Amino acid sequence: MRPIRILAKVLTLALLLAIPAAQLGAQSTDEPTQVRLGPETNLPLPRFVSLKTAETNVRRGPSLTHRIDWVFVRRGLPMQVIAEFGHWRRVIDQQGEGGWVHYSLLSGERTVLVMQDLLALHSRPDPDAPDVALLEAGVIAYLGSCSIDWCQLNAGGYRGWAEKTGFWGVDPGEIRE
Questions:
Q1: Helix (H) and strand (E) counts in the chain
Q2: Are 129 and 117 within 8 A, CB to CB?
Q3: Omega of the bond prior to 39 within 30 degrees of 0, cis?
């Protein structure tokens, strides 16, 4: 059986001002880290979420009076929350770029962004298992369960297992049931 190729929608990002990841508080994964909890939600920081809307303003600071630096125009795009202030969440994308977003524009539904072109979805978490589909770079997939090296993804009506190294939106050691 020949695997189905799932095409990526155009990933569009209106860039108004680039903010280096270091200014956004991105952390190195080289050192062991303690679980840090957000002061507003008591949820772990950093954590992954997704965008609820097809157009999301990303602001320079945590209020409507702050200037809009970015506009993300892709519903379901995964983001990483790195800070909280009131009803605002500081988020970064797969390139470490971002800013402040109102919490109502974010969803706890987990998605991932395929980074590897023609990422194979396998029928089981085994590189020798038959391919179910091939995902182009830029595809957004829904995240299912994860082991140390593999996650179950759902995209375009196809469900299968992919190696974590091929997408962004899950921590390397994250396990999900």
A1: 0, 18
A2: no
A3: no
Q: Mark whether 74 and 129 lie in a shared domain.
A: no
Tokens encoding 107: 């969803």
The model's pTM: 0.79
Query: Which stretches does DSSP call E strand in the chain?
Result: 4-6, 13-15, 36-37, 44-45, 47-51, 56-59, 68-72, 78-85, 88-92, 98-102, 106-107, 111-114, 119-122, 131-135, 140-146, 150-155, 158-163, 167-168
What's the Cα-to-Cα distance from 154 to each of 9, 44, 142, rounded to whole Å? Answer: 16, 25, 5
Dist CA 126 CA 150 (whole Å)? 9
Q: Which residues are 146's β-sheet partners?
A: 151, 176
Residue with tokens 């939600």: 41
- Classify residue 84 as left (phi > 0), alpha (psi -120 to 50) or beta: beta
Q: Compute φ and ψ for 52, nearest 5 degrees.
A: -80, -30
pLDDT per position as a tens digit, 91-120? 999 999 999 999 999 999 999 999 999 999
Boundaries of domain holding 89: 13-109
Give how many domains the chain has, as a whole number.
2
CATH code assigned at 26: 2.30.30.40
